[in-house]
Amino acid sequence: LDAILAEARKLEEQAANLEAEHQLFDAAELLERIEKEFNPLEVSKQARERRRTLLKSDEYKALELLTEAKELREKGIDDRADRLLEQIVEKYPGTLAAEEARTLLRS
């Protein structure tokens, strides 16, 4: 059991580092992995709660929209992309995604 918990703690730390580095999609994926692999242990429940909180966060929601806007721009659908970027700036102004959205709107 100690080895299992040590592995879980290692993965939790990796998830926290991913969050700190603003790699939120990767962090959410890792938390989901922890939840599944370590069920029914308490660490699984904690990972599920952390993931739920992350998915509900303004930063995560803004990043989802930013990703979609970038994909639209790559496809040449600039009007729709710009509307999404403006939505990010208005709805999630204090996020890192909003900073990037502002930059993209100026380009």
Q: What report would you give on this structure?
A:
- The protein has 107 residues and is mainly alpha-helical.
- The protein is 84% helix and 0% strand.
- It has helices spanning 2-20, 24-37, 42-56, 58-74, 78-91, 96-106.
- The longest helix has 19 residues, at 2-20.
- The radius of gyration is 17 Å and the shape is elongated.
- The chain starts with a helix and ends with a helix.
- The model has no long low-confidence stretch (mean pLDDT 97).
Question: What can be said about this structure in brief?
Answer:
The chain has helices at 2-20, 24-37, 42-56, 58-74, 78-91, 96-106. It has 107 residues and is mostly helical.
Catalogue the unreliable spans: none
Number of strands: 0
Query: Main β-sheet, in a few words?
Result: none
Identify the overall geometry.
elongated
Discrete helix count: 6
What key phrases describe this protein's structure?
107 residues; mainly alpha; 84% helix
List the SSEs and their pairings:
Elements: H1 2-20, H2 24-37, H3 42-56, H4 58-74, H5 78-91, H6 96-106
Helix pairs in contact: 1-2, 2-3, 4-5, 4-6, 5-6
